[in-house]
């Protein structure tokens, strides 16, 4: 017995030292690592940065375009000329050269307000990128938290199975002692050993599930899957969620609904750009040019010039086969479709929220019920254990009490987990999940 106690203390001390060496991963740490490492979030951040860079007057066509121009033409020809006074002249390998260079500016001064609509559209696309980024963050953070608390519950289940192993080992020891002194049959001892082996098998399977869930969490955190860690062995459930408040938050913050509203605004700006085709387009242009030419034969053998040029052009679509009307009607249909999609998204959102809230309330009730059942099962097991020690109850009755207690603890742990998952789901849908 002394050796066994020493072994237990040794194993316990080893586990404590090992536990200290492992990383203690809190939910806050998991969220922070997710925001830093998760690939989906990083991709969404890059897309959002691109959308931010796209918001500019230049992309909208509001700024002038300035360019440098250079043309250099050379030729070598054999020429024969007959002039008006009857004289003739010929020249072999005559060289000719013309050089033009300068700077040119074109500026669309007016295009039917289309450039302003395009600029607003770029701003809306930036907002859309922000909504997509928030969606990516909410989705991945909620997945990480769900997996994190799954690890917590798996860890709690391991603790339950550890405790039942202790009880089963005590039962085997009692059965051995009673068999030795002749107060129990060998059958009772064998049944105790079989049940102990069964509990050890359950623990091995639970350990496998626990390790696999930790690997999944490491994958979501975008870090080495072999990274070992421990989680905080506690699940705190927010029991104060209120459905009307969640519905208000969802209409204001849900990224999917926000994205749909932004898409409608983009469609309205698209209609403005289409309508710009009914107005004239005015383009102003100016530039400063240098020109020089040389010719081996002709009245002028060389010339050069430089100076400003400027002007403007006006174009107006008079008739295009009624395409303008058709394009405007198509743009209006797109706006109507977006409005319908907004209403559909709201209805689906409130339906998901209501369903998730019903599940949340049910799980809160189960927490209370299963906690009460666990206490009853624990008291029943304690009484049964004392009776079993003095030999007043059969083995099967003790095993039943043991299994009832184990199952009660597991159900309580599962109820707390499901309530926490319901809480995470509600906060993710309403856009109020803290990260």
Molecular structure report:
This protein has 435 residues and is of the alpha+beta class. Helices cover 66% and strands 17% of the residues. It has helices spanning 2-21, 27-37, 39-54, 57-60, 114-180, 186-220, 243-253, 255-275, 323-389, 395-429, and strands at 23-25, 65-82, 88-110, 229-231, 281-295, 302-315. Helix 3 packs antiparallel against helix 5 (114-180). A four-stranded antiparallel sheet has the order 2-3-5-6, with no helix packed on it. Strands 1-4 form a two-stranded parallel sheet. The protein is built from ten helices and six strands. A hairpin with a 5-residue loop joins strand 2 (65-82) and strand 3 (88-110). The chain is elongated, with a radius of gyration of 40 Å. The chain folds into two domains: 22-55 and 112-279 and 322-429, Outer membrane efflux proteins (OEP), CATH 1.20.1600; 66-110 and 281-315.
């Amino acid at each position: 017995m002394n050796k066994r106690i020493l072994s237990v203390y040794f194993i316990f001390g080893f586990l404590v030292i090992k536990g200290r060496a492992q990383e203690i991963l809190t939910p806050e740490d998991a969220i922070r690592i997710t925001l830093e490492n998760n690939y989906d979030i990083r991709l969404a951040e890059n897309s959002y940065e691109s959308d931010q860079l796209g918001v500019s007057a230049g992309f909208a066509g509001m700024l002038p375009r300035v360019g440098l121009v250079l043309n250099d033409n050379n030729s070598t020809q054999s020429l024969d000329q007959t002039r008006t006074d009857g004289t003739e002249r010929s020249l072999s390998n005559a060289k000719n050269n013309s050089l033009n260079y300068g700077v040119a500016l074109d500026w669309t001064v007016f295009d039917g307000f289309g450039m302003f609509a395009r600029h607003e559209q770029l701003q809306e696309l930036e907002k859309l990128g922000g909504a997509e980024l928030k969606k990516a963050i909410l989705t991945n953070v909620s997945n990480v938290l769900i997996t994190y608390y799954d690890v917590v519950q798996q860890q709690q289940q391991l603790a339950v199975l550890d405790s039942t192993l202790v009880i089963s080992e005590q039962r085997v020891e009692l059965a051995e002692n009673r068999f030795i002194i002749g107060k129990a049959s060998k059958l009772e001892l064998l049944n105790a050993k079989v049940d102990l082996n069964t509990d050890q098998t359950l623990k091995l399977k639970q350990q496998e599930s626990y390790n696999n869930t930790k690997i999944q969490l490491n994958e979501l955190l975008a870090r080495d899957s072999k990274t070992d860690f421990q989680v905080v062995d506690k699940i705190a459930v927010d029991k104060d969620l209120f459905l009307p408040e969640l519905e208000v938050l969802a209409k204001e913050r849900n990224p999917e609904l926000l994205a749909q509203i932004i898409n409608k605004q983009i469609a309205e700006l698209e209609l403005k750009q289409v309508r710009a085709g009914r107005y004239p387009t005015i383009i102003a242009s100016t530039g400063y040019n240098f020109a020089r030419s040389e010719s081996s034969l002709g009245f002028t053998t060389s010339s050069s010039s430089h100076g400003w040029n400027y002007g403007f052009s006006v174009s107006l679509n008079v008739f295009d086969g009624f395409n303008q009307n058709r394009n405007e009607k198509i743009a209006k249909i797109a706006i109507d479709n977006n409005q319908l999609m907004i209403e559909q998204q709201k209805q689906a959102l409130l339906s998901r929220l209501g369903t998730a809230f019903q599940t949340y309330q049910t799980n809160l009730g189960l927490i209370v019920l299963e906690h009460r059942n666990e206490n009853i099962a624990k008291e029943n097991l304690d009484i049964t254990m004392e009776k079993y020690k003095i030999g007043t109850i059969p083995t099967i009755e003790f095993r039943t009490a043991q299994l009832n207690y184990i199952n009660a603890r597991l159900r309580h742990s599962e109820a707390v987990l499901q309530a926490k998952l319901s809480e995470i789901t509600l906060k993710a849908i309403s856009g109020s999940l803290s990260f």
